Each structure stands twice: as C-alpha cells, then as structure tokens.
Amino acid sequence: MKRTLTRRELLRLMMAGSGAAVLAACGGQGQGGQPAPQATQAPAVVSQPGSKVKITYWGSFSGNLGEAEQAMVKSFNESQNEVEVEYQFQGSYEETAQKFTAALQANTTPDVILLSDVWWFGFYLAGAITALDDLAKQVNLDFNDYEPVLLNEGVRKGVHYWIPFARSTPLFYYNKAIWAEAGLPDRAPETWAEFSEWAPKLVKSDGSRAAFGHPNGASYIAWLFQGVVWQFGGQYSQPDFTMTMTDPNTLRAAQFYQDTVVKHKWAVLNANLNQDFLGGAIASMMASTGALAGIQANATFPVGVGFLPKETNFGCPTGGAGLAIVSRAPAEKQLAAMKYIAFATNTVNAGVWARSTGYMPVRISTKQTPEMVEFFTKNPNFKTAVDQLPKTRAQDAARVFVRNGDQIIGKGLERIIVNGEAPSAVFAAVNEELTQAAKPILEDLKAREG
Amino acid sequence: MAVTNEIERAMKPVNVRRRPIPLSLLAWRIVGYAAMIVVVVIIGLPVYWTVMAAFKETREIYSLPVTWWPAKPTLANFPAAWQAAPFGRYYLNSFITTFFGAAAEVILALFSAYALAYLRFPRKDLVFLLLLAALMVPVEITIVPNYLTVARLGWINTYQGIIIPGAAIAYGTFLLRQAFLAVPHEILEAARVDGAGHFRILFSVVAPITQPAIVTMALLSVVSKWNDFLWPLIVTNTTDMRTLPIGVFWLRNSEGFSNWGVVMAGSLFLIVPVLIGFLLAQRAIVEGMTAGAVKG
Question: Which of A28, A67, A106, B63 is the most exposed place for a label (fewest CB within 10 A)?
Fold first, then answer.
C-alpha cells in the first residue's frame, strides 16, 4: 500500500524547508555581517572610448528652483559632448540625505549630489564624499574666485569637499508702507537698541500687528538666532565642539529674544513668517535672501531690506546647499561630475542661477558681469543681500555639524520665547543635550582626521 | 444614505402620533448635532480651503485678512501646474501602481484571512500572533531594509519595485479575518453540505456576506497606495517612473517661497480621482449591508 504524507508531516517539512531558506539567505550576506565584496567594488571601465560619460545628479530643488536647475543641466548638456548629466529630484534636503544613506548601503549611489549645510559634514565623516582638489586641477577650476566665506565652509584640513552652489544668508525685511506710517527713516535699523525704540511705533494697539516676527523651531529659528548670538558677542559652540550655550553673551541674546515677545510684546513667534509679512501682520522680520524674489512679487506694499541689526558686533550666518562628488563613483564619472560643478558655478552661470533663484552668486567675478550690474540697478534689494555677503561667516558646529543640533537649539528657543522659561535653565539643558549629541561625531571626527 | 432616509421616513409617523420628545432627549440631540457640525467643519475646512486656493491668485492667498471666496477667480493655476511637470505620465504610473498594488493586497488578504478564520492547522494561534507582530512594525523601520532588498534584486526605478514590497500588508488580513469570523457557522455548514469547496465558499458565500468589510479594506488600500509618497520617491529615480504625490511635491519650493495656488491645483489632480472612487465604492458598502441580512 502506498503511504501518503499526512497533513501534519507535510507542514513540518515545509517549515524545515523555509528554515533552510532563511539560513541560505543569511549566508549570502558574507562573513561577519559585512556586505558582499562585489557590492562595494566600483566598475573599472564604464564607457567605450569616444562615447559620452553619463552621470547622475541628485538634487532637492522643486518648484521654480527645480525648473532653474533643470535649465542649468540642459544648458550644460548642450554646451559640450563629452558628459551628459541626468538631474534626478529626490525630495527635500532631508529626504535626499536619507535616500543617499540607503543608496550607500545598496550601492545605488549617484555621481554628484546636492547636500545642505547641515548634511554634508556627516557624509564627509562617513567618507562618502570625495576630496575635490585633484579633480578641480584637472578641469582648471580656480578656487580663488569663489566667495571665500562660502567656499571655506566646505574645507576640512585644507582639502575641498563641498562646493557652494545654492547659498543664502538672512536679511532684514521691512514693510515700507508701515515704516512711513510710523514716521521712521526709510532704512533697516542699525542696531537692536534703535529697533527697540522704533518697535512700539510699529505695533497696532488692537494686537492685529506686531513690529517683528520670529519663526518657530521647525522653520529654522536657530539659523536666524545664530546671527543674533554673534551680534551679542556669544556663540553656540567653539570649533572644537565645546558647547557655549551658557556663555553670558549667548544668554543675553536669548534674554533679548524673550523680552521682545514676553516683556515688550512687540514681537510674535509664528510658523509662517512670509505669510504674516505679506499680510501686514508683522512689520519686519529676518528671513532668507532666497525668499526675496517671491516676497517682492507678491507684496502689495514696497518691500525694504537691509543688513541685520548690530548689537556689540555685526553677525550674520550663511546657509543653503552645495555640491559634492560621491567617493564610490568611478574616476571617469568623478571627473565628469567635476566638469558639471565647474560649469554650474562659473562666472556667467553663477550669475544666471543667482538671478533666476535669489541665491547668492558664489563667484567674486560674477558681480562685475554686465548682466549682474544691470540686475543690481533694477533690484537694489538684491544688491543689499550680495553686499552683506562678505560680512557673513560660517555657522557654529553646534548647529551644522551636530546631528539634529538645529532642532535641539530651536526647541530650546521655543521654550524660552513661548513658555517664558528662564534662558539660563533652558540653555543649560540644551548645552547638555548638544554635548551628548556631539560625542559620536567627535569619535567619528577623530577616526577621520586623527 | 438612501437607506437611512427611508428608515427615517418610516419612523416619522410613529413619532408624530406620540407625545412630544422629552426635553433632556432634545438637549442630547442638539449636543449630538453640534458635535457633528464641529466634526464636519474640522474635516471639511481644509478641503474647502484647498479647493478655493486652487482658484485664487498667489497674492490673494498670502493676503490678510483671509478671503473665503476668491476675489478674482482664476483658472490659471491648473494649466500652470499641469505644465510644470509631466502629470499625464504621473497619472499613468499612479493608476498602474495603485491598481496592481491594491489588487495584490486584497487578493492576498482574502486568501490569508480565509485560512486564518476557517481552516484548522497546527500553531494557527502562532501564525496569527506573527501577523499581529507584523502589524506593530512601523513602516519607517522597514524602508531601508526594503530598499536594500529591492536594490539587490535590481528593481530600483521599476513598477515591481514600487508595488511588490507593499503587496502584502498585515492589517488587511487582520481586518478581513475579524469580518470572516462574524459570518454565522450555519451558512458555511450549509454550503459545505451542498458540496462547495474552499474557493466556492470564499467567493460565493463569504465574500458577498462580508462585502462591506472587503470594499472598505480595498478602499483603504487604494487610498494608501494612491497617496503613498515616501516609498515611490525612494525607490524611483527618474521622472518617468514617478507618481502623482511626488508631482505635487515637485510644485512646492523647498526653500523660500511657494506658489500655493499652483500647489493646490496640483493637489486637486490628486484628490479628484480618489473622491470619485469613494463615491462609487460607498454604494457597494451599503448594498453589502442589506445583502448580508439573510439569516433569519
């Protein structure tokens, strides 16, 4: 008699089989959890001699910025026939960085990538982006013509890793109509003391208008407060990652921010400042130069801009994003990527990009090109933004190099301004949190730079 | 809707003949209606705002005080949004990934729920527990491992790369199993006596009775696939493989200043097909309820 399997036996067999499959899958991973060797090897030769080198470029620009970016790539592809760039939109700065992280593990990386001020450093530490000096030499790129304050941010140990591209700075915006109504001179305040005298005249007593607006943590208050801290003679941290949030001058700046809202009541904290400014709910604000074109196009009143107010010093940070080349890309593609970076940031194109987006021209010589001179005459506000640029400086490590540092400081500021908590207590806690968050970075930094 | 209206009409004469409703009951009824109005406003206001903003000029959207009706209605946002990105291609990709993704999810959920509800096999409780555990894993955690798997299969930037990792979702199985358990035993036994096999029982008996649950599950599945943003963004690279939500995101400026009128017009491209799907499916949910009322 033929013996057939009972259902119970069949199930047991199936389970054993699937267990073996799981084991087999683990074996494919290679020894000790290391990725399989072929996953990390870059292909040696990519193209046939004489054919175009195709490179992939990941970026975060959408809307009209995205269109400007696509136009830049198109004009590069049409300008020569050695390299073809494909621009691939990957979402916000955060999503692009997230996807790059996953792509590094899966070996599906692009060749050139746009990284924001708070992200490039992490990839530098991980060795994911490559040194650019040799590549720059091969394409005759002159680093001396880049705005030094922007370029030097991307330099570690004398080596360039991150080339400035879409860079912005904060600017003081004011509503000229309200200014005239209050009888104030048509300019931005020289100092915070002067603005404190002006502010009560700008406020509407029924509460429908404040003199000044602060953004919230999610809209990067820590970026704008960076400048204010410097103006008061303080800082977030020292270059060696020693946190200085409890420095008396840093606390003085925080106390000033709290007073504007809690004590003097002429400022408000709000998520969408552009909206409040355009609607006339606030008379002035500090905001990115990148918003200038949009605000001017949609305002129903004349818009004035000026340098940030001073306290004991002038202080203004840089921001925005730059371009980096992926270490893992084959040499041929790295060189092609460098050619694209050189093109997108050359004297003429840096001007094209600045005029169509509102970002700063990253090349010094761009300011003298006839197109730019003409643009400045038509847009004196944009000239003000560019004139402020040489006076700006790179941000403190606490905000840009510590993971999530921007949000840690931003949430602390929200507690001080919104909840009215004492700056000394809140920033002591922030100091501790930043110090903890910096520890792994310091270890990585030691491993990377010695 | 139609059914509840009929019920109300049927109830009315009875109410009229009786004495007036007690005051406390009336008060509760007012509270109930007030709560309903609050809920409708909370849900409806953002939708209303989206629709109105799509017909406004950007300058008007940014102006205060807010306008509840476009002062200068304009249709310019729609062609502007349509031309800013290849929305025709996005529609095609969204239809393909949503249709196949949701179909796979519903079919797999039907079969697995049937097995878990009616079949007897050893360690069934353990299988169900495993399913519940899968239900608890947040999607965010699985994104990177899924990406690595899909990348090693060479499925980056393909339809199967978008569809397959989401083809089996534990919540669908869980939802349908619960609905299947509520089907009266007598009906199934009757079907079995009549000689129906598993497939016949599933498709001719269980599925029609639990139609509301299945349609609800399918609807949830369709909406989640249609609106899914992060996974398609991560697993695709080129514009011709992207789906609608990414197209809408593309209309926004990541830094600086967004043209909200155009973004809202793009959002309507996304919302309208789902809204139509919802209206059609709602009929199936109500019909299922009446069709299921056979046991007596």
Answer: A28
pLDDT computed for residue B291 by the predictor? 54
Residues 6+ apart with CB under 8 A from B214: B106, B110, B176, B179, B207, B288
Tokens of A321: 């994003």
A285 and A203 in a common domain: yes
Q: What is the pLDDT of residues A56-113, one digit of tens each?
A: 999 988 887 888 899 999 999 999 999 999 999 998 888 899 889 889 988 889 999 9
Q: How many CA atoms lie within 13 A of B163 on its CB side?
A: 18
Q: Does any domain span residue A13?
A: no
**Residue for token pair 């705005």:** A147
Give the C-alpha separation, B259 to B261, whole Å. 6
Nearest-angstrom CA–CA distance, A267 and A273: 12
Whether A13 has a pLDDT exceeding 70, the answer reads: no
**CATH value at residue A334:** 3.40.190.10
How many domains is chain A partitioned into structurally? 2
Q: Which residue of A has its CA nearest to B253?
A: A63
Q: Are residues A291 and A235 in the same domain?
A: yes
Helix (H, G, I), strand (E, B) or coil at B249: helix
Q: Which amino acid is at B269?
A: F
Last residue of a domain, one of A334, A355, A378: A378
A216 lies in some domain: yes
Asked if A274 and A296 count as a contact pair (C-beta separation under 8 A), the reply is: no
Selecting from B63, B122, B254 the residue whose C-beta is nearest the C-beta of A300 gives B63
Contacts of A56 in chain B (CB under 8 A): 237
Q: Which of B196, B194, B65 is nearest to B118 (CA)?
A: B196
Structure tokens at B272: 């309208």
Contact flag B156-A108 (C-beta cutoff 8 Å): yes
Q: Are residues A214 and A299 in the same domain?
A: yes
- Identify whether A221 is part of a domain: yes
Whether residue A261 sits in one domain with residue A161? no
Q: Cβ(A186)–Cβ(A179) under 8 Å? A: yes
Domain encompassing residue A213: 170-316+392-449
The interface predicted TM-score of the complex, written ipTM, equals 0.71
Q: Token pair of A429, please?
A: 């806690």
Flag whether residue A102 sits within 8 Å of chain B, measured between CB atoms: yes
Interatomic CA distance for residues A139 and A335, integer angstroms: 8
Please count the other Cβ atoms lying within 10 Å of the Cβ belonging to residue B64: 13
Domain end position, chosen among A378, A403, A427: A378
Q: A335 and A305 in one domain?
A: no
